[in-house]
Predict the 3D structure of the following.
Amino acid sequence: MLSPEERREIEAEFEHYPHKHALTIDAMKVVQKHRGWVSDEALKDISELLGVSVDELDSVATFYNLIFRKPVGRHVIMVCDSISCWMMGYDRLRDHLVKRLGVKMGETTPDGRFTLLPIVCLGTCDHAPAMMVDEDLHRDLDTEKIDSILEQYT
Amino acid sequence: MEKVLTRDVPADGSAFDIKRYELAGGYQGARKALKMTPKEVTEIIKQSGLRGRGGAGFPTGLKWSFVPGGPHAPHPKYLCCNADEMEPGTFKDRLLMESTPHQLIEGMVCAAYAIEADVAYIFLRGEYFLSAERLRIALAEAYEHGYLGKNILGSGYNLEMHLHLSGGRYMCGEETGLLNALEGKRANPRTKPPFPQISGLFGKPTIVQNVETLCNVHHIINKGPEWFKGLSRSEDGGTKLYGASGKVKRPGLWELPMGTTIREILEEHAGGMKEGLKFRGLLPGGASTDFLVEEHLDVKMDFTEVQKAGSRMGTGTMIVMDDRTCPVGFVKNLEHFFAQESCGWCTPCWSGLSWAEKMLASIECGEAQEADLERLAYICRFCAPGNTFCALAPGAVEPLQSALKYFREDFERHIREKRCPWR
């Protein structure tokens, strides 16, 4: 079941669009904000609220990079692998993160603290290499900086 | 030189709030526009020669004039700001939204009025959290001060404006993909015609315009088309946000006269190459543009001159490659991005780009043959304009086809030596 808060947040967007169908992405993002990811169960609930089939919701969910259909850790690390970051040392940073966290790209640490994902250009190419942890952008990275950044997230 | 778009960018990284914006002359362009007719506003923009800053460079006033107007026009009509900014190497609109969000809102009010739009959306990429926060605050302030909503500034004009945060996919930056995304669907492109100006968002007349383009609009209305043309050093009017990333001394973003040469941007503003490195080539305007090399350094960065040199100005944000970066690895990274972000709607794109990525990987690790270079050139022809549904694949092969032209010896050396010489 959608929580009253989730339902309220989704319904608050109704007036911004002429059809409920337009809210598929917003609704999934609301659910993800509260639960970290979008489960099959949540898709059914959103389907009932918006009148959009579960299959269609799933096809939309799997199209977009920022909607998670699997559980993620408490913090999601997204490392920019696009060209400017690649030139400025992405490989080294990725290898460092993989080694330090003990997981591959796309995996979650056994303690559920971090999920490590690649992300396309974060739009901060003049401060490459960069990564985002949850909603925080970290730029001009090196391996030492990464170590101190990780300590900020429990 | 006169700065227009970045004049009021606070040095401390904060946002220019409505009080400071109004004190600096903000919303005067909107006040002026709302006293004109929509046709008059469009005419001023046409006269200014403003061309879209999202990459394609289509004349803005002309685009607006395709929207049906007058008492019998279909409503609601929509204005969509394309703030998706997902092309690698592109980082210009973030600054405008984070530092002067009211500048975007004012430009949008003027543009929406010109096409008689009822509703406007800012389609923002999902990872731009700070832009989202500042735009939300600015939208609330604009409503509170009567610049949005019903009867704006007593003019009788009504406009609702909403912020939409994307689910994240490069295809959302394509005009019709953006409309599908706003309708809550997968961001596949749509067939044209009908063009969005006639049948766009929810089947109604719609204009989609880039952030930087819209931020110019109210300045032109305020100061006139001749002033705008005079800012430039070329045929294309105005200033431009130029940027440089990669191994230059001072990567960054600068507002300069349209038509500033690549050499000036690279050497004076970006400080030249980092110590010990030599310039090999650059993509002038994001990942989907052709390489330019040493012989092109004196080319003026504008739509016409860069095209004459065999590339596109695109977003005007250059990605600079040095002599210690492997050109094969460079284009492999780009094709990985494009193959991954292809929406899968048409065969040349989903099949051709992943094929190109795999072939580049085999060249890089020394498993390719000479004939593979011809196969790569074939993929470039296979993905050319006219063979695909939208511009993603033709853009994706631009860096590849030009790398094969300018750095062919590097590709051949990988094949000959059966390894990457840079490793």
Observations:
- The CA atoms of residues 46 and 61 of chain B lie 4 Å apart.
- Chain B is about 40% helix and 10% strand.
- Chain B touches chain A through 55 residues (CB under 8 Å).
